[in-house]
Design brief:
Elements lengths: L1 E9 L4 H11 L5 E8 L5 H13 L3 E5 L3 H14 L3 E3 L2 H11 L15 H15 L14 E5 L5 H10 L4 E5 L17 E6 L2 H14 L11 H18 L3 E3 L5 H15 L2 E2 L2 E2 L6
Helix pairs in contact: 2-3, 5-6, 6-9, 7-8
Amino acid sequence: MTRLHLHLLSDSTGETLEMIAKAALAQFDDAEVIRHFWPMVRSQQHLDRIVGELATNPGLVLHTLVNAEIRVRLEERCRVLGLPHVPVLDAVTTALEDRLGEAAKGRPGRQHAMDEAYFARVDAIQFTIAHDDGAGWENWEEADIVLAGVSRTSKTPTSIYLANRGYKVANIPLVVESPPPAFLFELQQPLVVGLTTAPKRLIEIRRNRLLSLNQTTDTAYVDEEKVESEVAFARRMFADRGWPVIDVTRRSIEETAAGIMRLLAERDTVTDGVETGLKPI
């Protein structure tokens, strides 16, 4: 197995750089990658302290440094150490400069500015947390998205992921013995999406959850017949209401969220007052 020290240097939070590195590394199975994360590198003194670590653990250097002096200093040190270094946003920035006819501002952390979009995202996160697990149903009409599904179908983590993308999300667990509030079926503004999964996979997830809580697994919560009945109950509700459905059995949270955002975009594409059709995913 190949071993690699991967150094990630950013003059801001490093969130963008981490996502790029994660996406690229997902393409490689047989590699042991040791990540060294260096955010908020905004002075040459800070960079000089990091260079010692680069020499101790040589590897690949990825960076999103926009300050010219710090960037040049890093590149010089990498050349002396014989380390490959990649400015991961350069190609995109250069292409944008060419097409827009405007030079990039070169301001660290500019994408994290506290503008209107930032505060809208904070508002979305607060709304989503306050409307988790069926709470605050009286305000669901204010949501962009409402997720429905039986217990352990990734409703909460998907909601939080979407909230970080700026969507106000509410979610509700569907329980056979306790019907959801009638208000759920009267919603006009939010896109209601049903989340479902394979019963066997659901049982496995629930059993692991019980074990993590040191609780017995001898319960209806993981009984095969009961679980199949729950899933069938939810699917009938989705079909009766015409809600779009996403099967999360083999989907990551990011993939589920991407599917939901696509559905929302399709719904909001209106031609002559007729909404586009929504198909189960």
